[in-house]
Write a structure and sequence with these properties.
Low-confidence stretches: 1-15, 17-27, 239-262
Distance between the termini: 8 Å
Largest sheet: 7 strands, antiparallel
Oligomer: single chain
Shape: elongated
Strand content: over 45%
Helix content: under 10%
Radius of gyration: 22 Å
């Protein structure tokens, strides 16, 4: 079972954001700062052979589109047949505007130790992190939708990977938590009013695993953690713009969230 947003095209969401921010009575936010990064590392060992490539990291230099991934891979082979492989992966595609925040983040790992033998090990981790600080000068509405998801698969009596993710919204002036994802797996849905002030919106997906080999069975470990959300911010419509607000409801329905198989 996989949850998905059917309308993830940046163009479609940009059109909706433009209609919202461009209408009479609708306001925009002011962007203050941002941090968006992807980080991953991997290391493997087969007896005395060690492969430990440098950890990889990328970050967004500014408020523009961030679409990056890192995928370090480690492979150690000893005696021609003992193999230890490890990989950490982190990806993110996110965009920031004065009325729409959109982000898809993923972190995953994979470890393979074979054939059954002692002296093999693998270690890997990945993290995708999203954070933006913004302010609003007058009362505004927000609508957030999306999902978080984790999956872990192991063989040969391996230990499970550590999987974490989170999406949250906080007013930083008084440290008021407005929204926080309640679990590592499930849909996200929140709406409400933002009073004038400063805010922090964040999301992260993280996974890590460390495994040694067994003399009984080959061992494999794989895990993935994801977040995917859209947050619209728009001004409170005045009475004179009530018709425009009704049109926004129709747009929201057209761009709404459905959940199903992918």
């Amino acid at each position: 079972m996989k949850k998905y947003l059917p309308l993830t095209s940046p163009t479609k969401w940009a059109v909706l954001a433009a209609l919202i921010s461009g209408g009479e009575g609708f306001a925009a936010v002011s962007l203050i700062s941002q941090t968006r990064t992807v980080d991953a590392q991997a290391e493997s060992q087969a007896l005395l052979v060690v492969d430990s490539p440098a950890p990889e990291s990328k970050s967004a230099p500014g408020f523009g589109l961030f679409n990056e991934s890192v995928e370090p891979f480690a492979l150690a082979i000893s005696s021609g047949s003992l193999v230890a492989a490890a990989q950490g992966v982190a990806k993110q595609k996110s965009s920031l505007s004065t009325s729409l925040f959109a982000a898809e983040g993923e972190a995953s790992i994979s470890l393979s130790l074979f054939p059954p033998a002692v002296g093999l090990s693998g270690d890997a981790s990945g993290k995708s992190f999203f954070e933006v600080f913004f302010s609003v000068d007058e009362a505004m509405h927000f609508s957030l939708s999306g999902f978080v998801d984790t999956q872990g698969i192991v063989t040969g009596d391996s230990g499970l990977p550590a999987l974490e993710n989170e999406v949250g919204l906080k007013r930083t002036d008084d440290n008021t938590l407005i929204f926080l994802s309640g679990s590592n797996d499930g849909s996200l849905l929140a709406a409400g009013e933002l009073i004038p002030g400063n805010y922090r919106l964040w999301a992260q997906a993280e996974v890590s695993a460390s495994q040694i080999s067994s003399s009984m069975d080959p061992r494999t470990v794989s895990g993935i953690s994801e977040f995917d959300f859209r947050m619209l911010v728009y001004g409170v419509p005045e009475t004179s713009t009530y018709v425009s607000a009704l049109g926004l409801v129709g747009l929201a329905a057209m761009f709404g969230v459905r959940w199903g198989r992918r």
